[in-house]
Amino acid sequence: MRWRLPEERPAEPPTGFKIAHPMLSQDGSRAGFTGVSLGGALPYGVLDEARCVYGLRHRAPHRRCDCGFHCVHDRTAAEAMLCTADHRTAVLLEVSVLGAYLRFELGFRYARQRVRTATVGPCTCGSVAVALADAGWGKPGWRALAASCAGCVRGRPSVSLATFARLGGEGLRVRAGGGAAPSGGDLPEGLGVSELIAEAALLQARLDWFQTQLARLGEHGAGQA
Length: 225
Prior knowledge:
Elements: E1 15-25, E2 31-34, E3 47-49, E4 69-72, H1 75-81, E5 91-103, E6 107-120, E7 131-139, E8 142-148, H2 150-153, E9 158-160, H3 161-168, E10 173-176, H4 195-224
Parallel strand pairs: 6-10
Antiparallel strand pairs: 1-2, 1-5, 1-8, 3-6, 4-6, 5-6, 7-8, 7-9
């Protein structure tokens, strides 16, 4: 005799929370994410279908495998994972659980998902993030990104939060989740910093970096003369 698990047919897709690293494709045309544990080998899009990380041909989630997307029910539980050293540069995702899923005490393992919101933490310096910049590592064809303020972007490849949301598509929303206000002005209420201010700050940081490099080249040339 075989016991069958109870089936659920919710009117609306369940909501879950997880953490992941934001990723940008090598050509800069696509944005996605990669997991922090088992699923870290396979970057995924904002709307995507799970694949077995072991290369098996069964559909995820398989009851006798660990494959499938994973998330937890409670936002606080997902935020707690951001405290560990390995996950400090990850972002918090709010997702819709789509397709077949297995329910556990703490969360879901499921077949498809849509990332609805990505909340970006502060820059490593403690300031509010206005961009996602090259984190110094990646996957084949993908560059990992991390939160950055305007002053810390410098010459690194980067995209604003609004640009990352646009490249991700599927209605993705990206917001700055906290951090100290940059010196020289107060932050608007609500999101923490408007996208227009973020774009301007990012361009200004790049301009400052180029001006510094030009000044150094000028000093080097004068010394040779």
